[in-house]
Amino acid sequence: MVINPTYLAVRTRSSRSFDDARKRVITSYREWLRAAPEVQSMYSLNMPVSAIRTKIRQEFERHRYVSQLKTVDVLLFNSHQEYQETLNFWKQLTHVLKYFRMEEDPKAKLPKTFIQGFLEGRN
Amino acid sequence: MGPTYQAAANTLRTAARPTLSLRAPFIARVQAARCISEEAPRKVSPDDPPSGEGGRMSPQNLTRTEEGASGGQPKHQPDYNVAADYRTSNFSPVPTRVMDGSEPGLDTPAAVLSGAPMDLQARTVRIYRPAKTPTQSGTWHGHHWRMDWDVLSKGHRWENPLMGWQSSADFMQGTHLNFNNKEDAINFATKQGYEYFVQEPNERKMLPKAYATQFVYQAKKLKEVRTK
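Output (structure tokens, whole complex):
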């Protein structure tokens, strides 16, 4: 009996080198960018597609300076996992909106300066 | 890719790396920027391959030729420019640094991979050996090493307005991690990107005592037997 993999499933593999990893990262990034309008319509998000793309870029930039290949592999796996879960509609609005918490919730940001943190009464 | 593009990319790079642009004195920043631009495999644009040696934490970036009186000391200023994650809240402390996977010599950058909140990298962790219960003679609980999270100054406890229950925003309160030895605890803390300090235990001093020391000959008039 043939077992059909789910839509967007990808066989696990390790990157052979940093060049290979770089190509995979850029491919993953392009897939995400192309999927941004789809995500907006699927989850009925009240933000422009550019905001979603900025968030995608932000999440990728968070790990720009990773120096180990194995870490990059795990991050690529996580990125594709999120991609599959989002586009297969396995997520719910909560799960997608958690990435936008800092934009939606004014209390969820770190202070910009010492004085602002002091006046907020931060830890 | 003329000289103006190079200069602009250099400025962008130094500006985008808060470890260089905010904390170092001006002369060190200039020196470090010059060191960066002189090496060959540096990312100038997003099209360049990633620098495999370690990004902005590689030894070349960290050498500073001019250091003031506090050179080499850890910088305790909070870094307000870190990328906050979705669990940052009103009570989150501001970290001094956040692990980004570019640290040299680290086996597993678990802080990057574990998905733990960034707040945990802002909080200090105490590694210590819990003392033996003074009311009993047994030392059964006093051999392992424990990791405790320092209490948040705001949000660690307040009274629930409806029922008067004790509420807390500190998700690590009451969490202990136990380890077999100090090195394990320290490795875990560095791997997870925690700021830690180790509190050395007060070891119990046991003197070997014998009943016969009371009868040992001493030339002086008053016999002195030390039992402590």
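Chain B touches chain A at residues 49-58, 78, 80, 82-84, 86, 88-94, 100-104, 108-109, 112-113, 152-155 (CB under 8 Å).
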